[in-house]
Amino acid sequence: MAARVGVVLFPGSNCEHDTIEAVRGLGGDAEVLWHGDDSLGGVDAVVIPGGFAHGDYLRPGAIARFSPIMDAVRDFAAAGGPVVGICNGFQVLTEAGLLPGALQKNAGLKFLCATATLRVETTESVLTSAAQSGAELRIPINHFEGNYTCDDETLAMLRSEDRVVVRYVDNPNGSVDDIAGVCNEGRNVVGLMPHPERASHDLLGSSDGAVLLQSLLDTAAAGV
Amino acid sequence: MGARRLQGMRFDVQVETSPRAGIADPEGSTIERSLPALGFEGIEGVRVGKSFRFTVEASDDAAARTLVEDVCARFLTNPVIEDSAVTVSASATV
Question: Which position among A15, A35, A87, A121 bears the catalytic label?
């Protein structure tokens, strides 16, 4: 049975269909979950997609974390369910306290829309289990507030616990320690600024993101 | 939240949020770097934040402040990167 991935749609999300298309292209099932619902409908994995949830008002993710579905996402994550936040989804997960740190404005104050090269730093996460450690992946970034920051204590913890999942090879936005994505203590919640769903087919210029989504599908299927 | 307070007073509140000390403020730095080009010299330490103004009903000044500080910690700021300064004063318009 194919794994079912639920992609949460907030008002202002805009990458939900890209994500669904990419997941289906890999043989998974995917569906939209409405942010106002309080249930995940029995999906095997959750993706919080990119976009501008609630217009990014106040701060990116600051209002989305109060959406009814976030309680269900929190419970699902606490039970070990795979949850991935992409771009705005990463911001939502940090605001919700499901991932440490915060995303601030890019150093240089530029909105960045480019292909970045990422290095896979650990395969011990729901997003990288099928990848090779040290592999370099070309994946687009598309953000203004992607400059990852955290206090020194948190950074030391992320390093010592091997929780930096992907790093930028050439840091585009000022993120501390070149961090592009991190995971939680249970390694089942991952957030990253780059968009693997936009690098899921050669026609898109790169299919390097497919291995990340495949990892998520594998993990989700294992939990079915 | 909870029972409606009796004989509550209304307070004017101003909350200012800004990047915490030690957190880079690229917007502030960019503004600071631009000032000399306009002939403004001697300006340092530019920090950019947000300002929120609202009124709140509470039994007294301390209760109003406690409530607003809770709002700041849980919603108006991200404590990882932002600090807030709260000003509370009895409202002139009731």
Answer: A87
Return the residue matching tokens 């395969």. A123
- Report the pLDDT value the prediction gives residue B4, as an integer from 0 to 100: 55
Decide if A148 contacts A193 (C-beta within 8 A): yes
**Cα A218 from chain centroid (whole Å):** 16
| DSSP string of A85-129, one letter each residue | EETHHHHHHHHTTSSSSEEEPPTTS--EEEEEEEEE--S-STTTT
Q: Which amino acid is at A70?
A: M
| Inter-residue contact A29 to A19 (CB < 8 Å) | no
Q: What number does CATH give the domain B9-90?
A: 3.30.1280.10
How far is A98 from chain B, CA to nearest CA, in Å? Answer: 13
The CATH class that applies to domain A4-222 reads: alpha beta
d(CA A189, CA A49): 14
Cβ atoms < 10 Å from Cβ of A142: 18
Average model confidence (pLDDT) for chain A? 96
Inform me whether the pLDDT recorded for B86 exceeds 80. yes
Per-residue pLDDT tens digits for A44-80: 999 999 999 999 999 999 999 999 999 999 999 999 9
> How many Cα atoms are found within 13 Å in the side-chain-facing hemisphere of A43?
27
Let me know if A87 is a catalytic residue.
yes
Nearest-by-CA chain A residue for B75: A62
Q: How far apart are CA B23 and CA A90, in angstroms?
A: 19
Domain residue limits, chain A: 4-222
Q: Looking up tokens 């090879």, which residue turns up? A: A169
| % pLDDT > 90, chain A | 96
